[in-house]
Amino acid sequence: MGEQLPALQVVVPLIGALLVALVRRPTAAWLVTVVVSLAMPVISALLLVRVLNQGVISYHLGGWDPTIGIEYRVDIVNALILLLVSAVAAVIAPFARLSVLSEIAEGRIGWFYAMYLVSLAGLLGIAITGDAFNAFVFLEISSLSSYVLIAMGRDRRALVAAYQYLIMGTIGASFYVIGVGLLYIMTGTLNLNLIAERIVAVESFRPVLAALAFITVGISLKLALFPLHVWLPNAYAYAPSVVTTFLAATATKVAIYLFARFVFSVFGAGFVFADLPVTPILVALSVAAIFGAGTVAVFQSDVKRMFAYSSVGQVGYITLGLALATTTGVTGGLVHLLNHAMIKATIFMGLGAVFFRVGRIEFQDIAGIGRRMPITMGAVAIAGLSLIGVPGTAGFVSKWYLVVASLEVGWWWLAFLIVLSTMITVVYVGRLIEWAWFREPSRQVATVEEAPIEMLAPICLLAAATIYFGIDTYLTAGLAERAANALLSGLR
Amino acid sequence: MTSGTLIALALIIPTAVAVLLPLFAGRPNVREAVTLIGTVLLFAVVLSLLASVLAGERPSLAVWTVVPGLSIAFAIEPLGMLFATIASGLWIANSVYSIGYMRAEQAPRQTLFYVCFAIAIASTMGIALAGNLFTLFLFYELLTISTYPLVTHRGTEEARNAGRLYLLMLLGASTILLLPAIAWTGIAAGTLDFGVGGILGGRVSDATLGILLALYVFGTAKAAVMPLHSWLPAAMVAPTPVSALLHAVAVVKAGVFTILKVIVYVFGVDTLAKAGTGDWLLYVAGITVIVASVMALRQDNLKRRLAYSTISQLSYVVLGAALFTPLAILGAALHIAAHAVSKITLFFAAGSVHVGAHVDDVSEMNGVGRRMPWTMGAFAVGSLSMIGVPPTVGFLGKWFMLLAAVGIGQWFAVGVIVISTLLNAGYFLPIVYRAFRRTGDGRPGVAEAPWPVVVPLVATAILTIVLFVWPTIPYDLADMLAGTSAAPVASDAATGGRQ
Amino acid sequence: MSDLIALAGDVVAHYNQWITVFLMVSGLYIVIARGNMVKKLVGLSLFQTSVYLLYISAGKILSGTAPIIDPHFTVYSHPLPHVLILTAIVVGIATMAVGLALVVRINEAYGTIEEDEIFKRDDDR
Amino acid sequence: MRLDVILRVVTKVILPFMLVFAIYVQFHGDYGPGGGFQAGVIAGATIILYALIYGLAPARRLVPAALVEAMIPLGVLIYAGVGVVGWLTGGNYLDYSHLAHDPVHGQEWGVFLVEAGVFVTVSATMVAIFYAFAGRGRR
Q: Which residue of C has its CA nearest to A145?
């Protein structure tokens, strides 16, 4: 059975989604979702252990040879991403029941869970596949289901947000597939590994450069790299709480993985970063994202929207680390990818719990909420501190790597910008803490109670994780460093 | 019990108090009992550590390596021991005082107050006992964050603004300046562990030493060296116990402690003295001392006047450190202790006046001393100590710094100390005079504050005098510190500083 | 002169790619320039179609037949691009369905499908 | 319901042929252009044509929405199930070689079943999309 793990990782949520679509009773649908979601981290943890023990796992779908068939290929990089996505899914599933019951019309709950599982299967598929076109299909599977999920959001603005995301996402995916097509024309294969082998001979040809450009822009749309991020804030802000949490923690992260996979493993770090001026461009965009999106976040009146903008900024840190293309830098980027997923999942789940109790999520409406829901908001505050990068939390570890990485390449100004940008985070996290604790409770808030235990438990678990991974970094920084080395060494 | 266990306990006890308190939120008496038991236990633990340090031991405890190069480790040296002893000892007095003050004030959200307080003390212990720069930084930030809710505690517009300034200035300086300084140190020296004689000697150029020193000094905004001082007067909106223990002892002392420790154990006194690129610090500190004193003269609000006085006194310590001689380091360390007991007395008295006479401004204090003799008597003792008049402990630190300054012919420092002493007298003595010599306007309701408020302030006032007569413990610790920074030891820094 | 003719020949010989580029750019233009949400989707569809052409024309071999093994033929077109594009078409249809469904819902919620008017109505609230 | 007699009659006549053609395309997929996608669309089109001519309500009586909504996941389930059978018979996921006594027949069977699943899902999806849009605004 161990050999079948890669297929199980994708097939189980897919079959789960089909079962949910057949049954569609809210409770049954939720139960299936929980069972599937809890099975996911088990599978990905087993995969990770196998990768650590035996090296790269190659799985031939349908028994076809990789030259013509689809290959699932798991190395330490995507094993880590798989574990991240499935762990987040497992934590969200128990939380989802009450949140979904309160936010989604009853007739749609079944479809909601079906779409949720399809989206999960799609994201896991992107991460696990070793085939460029298969990645496109999974990309669209996850995107299409997330458009639907976002459209189920709290008011009509969710529809417009989903529509905008659909337009941008489809353009991004089409750009990606154009790039893949050009690569296919030049190399005659769609297998990422084989492309990487054959591209060396043709990398000076113009279609390869065009392919790099198309793929980079296409994926950048999906990962919301500044200035291609405009779809993200509204989509996150108006989507149902569960969806926001899930997408914020996983969707952009998987897109970043795909980006890293293409840039480092397929095109090769030497080609992209040494021969082409990608580093300065990407660093400039990342810094612009960090400062631009961070500043916009400060002025939001909607808490979810504020943290959505913050996500755009935080993606900047990840791409910044990748752009440096050194071991420390890529490690920093990957660590921040993992940490930011945890942090944002905690924050959006906490806000989901607040929304569940209060029914609104603007600053004025949740004034004083920290006094009524101390545990929920305490967890959000801890995650916020981690977002700032206070030492002892996960966020510090990633920021430390990034600062050291920029000092190592002699870019002290970049280190300075990184620490300076932290102040923006302090401002908007501080603003939430101030509203939550140091204002008199508003009328809506005065009567609410602490969130129910089945919501609190996942929130507290993740908040504890953001502290735990600030102290014990084997699973994050330790593995991320190995992953960074694997990425930088090119072919897997 | 091994010394490692004791170090762990010194952190665990206040943390445990913080964890237990919310469980007794509904029962104030139990809650306060938990706090008091915690304070006494902590002090006992610190005292037993003190005994082993005085016996010449240097206990240490390696906890965990976060990422290669960043580890959480504790190692006790004399300066840290001195700081830990002061902070934990005064926590007892301050807890008694808090109970009286907060109940008299009928303050809201007392549980949150005590929880944050306990976390702040735990962080202070972490700073004092830290064995490397990362551990120090970790607890330094934790201290900032745990005291932010205390500053904003009242929840008024003014308190929120003060909280914002507090958070932005302290967190901002430490992340923008201190963190890069630490990263730079780590890359240059290959280690972040504190080493006797410094770890940077011979590793970086003189100019770099000067830049790094600036990053450290201004990154440690808690030391309130100008121009990063304005958070401290603003933080006075906090309840008085917070101002007393945290903004006269724990937080601000954590700042100067960090600067002193970095100068002694990261740069090395000798290295800096030879490099000559750190001399600017003397002038910055000197100017801060004088300017803050002048500003204190102009404050009418008693707590704000005390805050400016604190800024000035903190820079005394920095000034002492910036002389880069062992004798001045001794004086600086002693002044940390002296200022702690004296200033907490003054703040206690200010709070007592607030509770007993409902007066916050100096101009309204006429005759208060006659109605509140214990309070204002203690205030007088504290004032004398701040000015540096024997028989109070404030004299000792100034004396040694003055000796050191004269010894190396640093007449600027001598001038600063003399002028500021006059200024100190200028802003403290009128208060005492008003309180005792002028007659009040006979307002009713002015009476001595409740006993939990009065007893601690009298106790710290007595301590101010006792430490002058019997300064053995702080003196020995300061002497040990000065000994480690003396020239002969520095020669083996090249080997001693590495791991 | 002969260079020019060769160049013109090159341009004409890659006519399939010119069509691809034309469709792609015009589709993208419609998506960006039109405020009507349905028209945007039409543009998006055009844009996707250009991608189909890119793949299919790359798989075609002149005078090759369908890839079914038969003793009379030796030259076959590459079947894989067709398979891929079949998948891509399905993805395109699904996108279109979701997109149009969203437009219908938006029309019900706002009473218009012009983007600028929708933004104006949201700002008014 | 207007009296467009010609359309109604012609539709009645043409519907069975459309369905047969769909089945032809489905099974001819092994030897020529065709397969589940195309067949599914043609089959879906017959229902849509019926609904266009005779109205939505009769079409819904003929092919209930609940059935359509069940068929969509069911078809994919057939597809995924065939893949799982590949597992159980000792191959990788979607490996049809072990479905029959020799690999070539196994592949044939596998593709046949998968195409059947595709047919179910595609035809149902077409009808479902039509129902969803056509039913809008009439409730």
A: C98
